[in-house]
Amino acid sequence: MADEAGRDVQRVDRWLWFARFVKTRALAQRLVAKGKVRVNRTRVTKPSQLVSPGDVVSLMNRDHIKVVEVVATGTRRGPAPEARLLYCEINPASDSAPCTATHHVRTSTLDDPPRKCKFTGNPPDTGNS
Question: Kind of pairing, strands 50-51 and 10-11?
């Protein structure tokens, strides 16, 4: 959808759902109605608030605060890798840092710990034999 100026815009509740910050659109609407979402530092209380690329969205979900920049508006709720293309995370400490990444890809290095550590060898003796 485009506004009068020709920018791509989308409702904030729909964008939060497309970007996979919430499981359902109804949860996104409740989050917005409770005042837990801000767009460009302004508290949003209506799910129909429009967001466009370049807007900064911050949301508080449970005990976590997420600050992201809208990179694109979505056309569907796709898989997680596709959803990550809709935003880039902003570090709250560096509020004015420009967002240059369009998506996040984690590359493994040799220094990374293994994902699962399995116990090898005999189980420890607990003395309850």
Answer: antiparallel
Burial string for 67-100 (b: 16+ CB within 10 Å, else e) reads: bbbbbbbbeeeeeeebbbebbbebeeeeeeeeee
Q: Which residue has the tokens 């100026």?
A: 5
Exposed, middle or buried, 120 (CB in 10 Å: 0-12/13-18/19+)?
exposed
Phi, psi angles (nearest 5°) of residue 34: -80, -5
For residues 85 and 70, give the distance between their C-alpha atoms in angstroms, rounded to a whole number: 9
Convert the pLDDT of each residue in 74-88 to its tens digit: 899 999 999 999 999
Sketch out the chain's domains with CATH numbers.
Answer: 10-89 (3.10.290.10)
Segment 25-42 mean pLDDT: 94
| CA gap 37, 65 in Å, rounded | 10
pTM: 0.67
DSSP sequence for 51-111: E-TT-EEEEEETTEEEEEEE----SS---HHHHGGGEEE--TTSTTPPP--S-------TT
